[in-house]
């Protein structure tokens, strides 16, 4: 049961962020980004699919990966708050991407040593994809941060807006703690050093300042979400709810 | 002897399936067909996905199943995640076909992308020039990046190294 819930947390993180960046498809500021963002969305949704499929098997109640993704309600989602934040402007989108990928890359790298074959399999693919996501997002954060007066201001505003959601990445739910104790999943808090190092390096290049965070935000792992998630799910789940059982 | 011949026939049938997005190479040359075994008269093909979100994965599995059925076998397709596919598994013949098709093959062993701005030198598949530049890390499919040649001025796809 602990593994099921911990797997769902990871699956939800990837599906929700994958959906968020797919919202840029057709709206990105340039053609290359219109290709890049859905590409990264595919990476994350692909990862989520394998994890949902595994979760459904662990649950053993006959639910499918589609049921897991499309028929749960807001309070049942276990994603962290960072990934559900609205896209905002391009600065916010790229920073959210950088924050998440910079956490997931060392996480998946550590998960390569998991005794769980599915986790190891997912990690093997995802670790390489996350390296690309970090590079892509970091390049944009630097370009915008060390850019024009306007882009620098927007980038710094994005940092102020999003940094309070990053602490939750390093917190482990009771389910995750149990899996960490078994060595099946890496200890989230142990990603802190590498995350600080990469973010610090990028922010140094981007001339961005780390903000004080007096009120860190968390609660996603307990199903306590912001208003944005409900809107996201309403859109994402519309087809499946309007046409039950529909398949591509 | 018959079993050996059947096994070879099954392998050849499955291996001949082209990649739906990069049809110049087949699944053997891409290294995504791991094995075809005959188990109790059933051809069991093990297939590995390239990228997590590759939309071609299911199409490839279906195409392999169809190819094996047309060759007269009962079929079971198994998806294998570990160890993960890497571009190192693309055969030499596959790389040459990619280049001839206008896609620069992956140039370095996997793992190199971790360096934050570790750029690699990608030779233009048309004129061979190493004077090229990256336009975008992410191209028309999950497996490709976009480059442009500064010598012959042609844009081209680069098969990303993972």
Which short descriptors sum up this protein?
heterodimer; A: 248 residues; B: 162 residues; 4-stranded mixed β-sheet
Protein model, in words:
Chain A has about 250 residues and is an all-alpha fold. Chain A is about 65% helix and about 0% strand. Chain A contains eleven helices and no strands. By secondary structure, chain B is an alpha/beta fold. Chain B is built from four helices and seven strands; from the N terminus they run H-H-E-E-H-E-H-E-E-E-E. In chain B, strand 6 and strand 7 form a beta hairpin. The longest helix of chain B has 15 residues. The radius of gyration of chain B is 18 Å and the shape is elongated. The N and C termini of chain B lie far apart (about 40 Å). About 5% of the residues of chain B have low confidence. Chains A and B meet through helix 2, helix 6 and helix 9 of A and loops of B.
* Record field, number of beta strands of chain A: 0
Q: Which oligomeric form is depicted?
A: heterodimer
Largest sheet of chain B: 4 strands, mixed
In percent, how much strand structure appears in the residues of chain A?
under 5%
Strand order of the largest sheet of chain B: 4-7-6-5
Enumerate the spans of chain B where pLDDT stays under 50 for 5 or more consecutive residues.
Answer: 110-115
């Amino acid at each position: 049961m602990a593994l099921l819930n911990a797997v769902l947390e990871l699956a939800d993180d990837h599906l929700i962020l994958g959906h968020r960046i797919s919202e840029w498809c057709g709206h990105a500021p340039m053609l290359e980004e219109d290709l890049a963002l859905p590409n990264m969305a595919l990476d994350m949704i692909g990862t989520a699919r394998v994890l949902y499929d595994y979760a459904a098997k662990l649950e053993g109640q006959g639910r499918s990966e589609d049921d897991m993704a499309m028929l749960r309600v807001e309070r049942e989602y276990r994603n962290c708050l960072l990934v559900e934040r609205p896209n905002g402007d391009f600065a916010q989108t790229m920073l959210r991407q950088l924050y998440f990928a910079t956490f997931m890359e060392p996480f998946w790298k550590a998960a390569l040593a998991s005794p769980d074959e599915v986790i190891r399999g997912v990690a093997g693919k995802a670790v390489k994809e996350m390296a690309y996501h970090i590079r892509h997002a970091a390049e944009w954060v630097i370009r915008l941060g060390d850019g024009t007066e306007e882009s620098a201001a927007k980038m710094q505003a994005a940092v102020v807006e999003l940094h309070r959601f990053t602490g939750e990445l390093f917190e482990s739910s009771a389910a995750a703690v149990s899996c960490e104790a078994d060595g099946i999943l890496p200890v989230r808090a142990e990603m802190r050093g590498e995350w600080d190092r990469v973010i610090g390096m990028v922010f140094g290049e981007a001339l961005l300042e780390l903000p004080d965070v007096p009120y860190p935000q968390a609660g996603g792992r307990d199903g306590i979400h912001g208003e944005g998630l409900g809107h996201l799910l309403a859109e994402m789940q519309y087809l499946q709810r309007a046409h039950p059982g529909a398949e591509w | 002897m018959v079993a050996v011949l059947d096994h070879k026939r099954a392998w050849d049938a499955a291996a001949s399936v082209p990649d739906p997005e990069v049809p110049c190479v087949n699944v053997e040359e891409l290294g995504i067909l791991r094995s075809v075994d005959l188990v109790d008269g059933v051809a069991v093909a093990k297939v590995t996905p390239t990228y997590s979100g590759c939309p071609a994965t299911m199409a490839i599995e279906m195409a392999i199943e169809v190819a094996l059925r047309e060759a007269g076998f009962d079929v079971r397709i198994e998806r294998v995640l570990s160890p993960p596919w890497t571009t190192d598994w693309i055969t030499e013949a596959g790389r040459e076909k990619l280049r001839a098709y206008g896609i620069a093959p992956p140039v370095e062993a996997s793992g190199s992308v971790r360096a934050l701005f570790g750029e690699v030198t990608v030779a233009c598949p048309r004129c061979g020039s190493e004077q090229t530049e990256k336009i975008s890390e992410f191209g028309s499919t999950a497996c490709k990046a976009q480059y442009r040649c500064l010598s012959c001025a042609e844009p081209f796809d680069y098969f990303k190294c993972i």
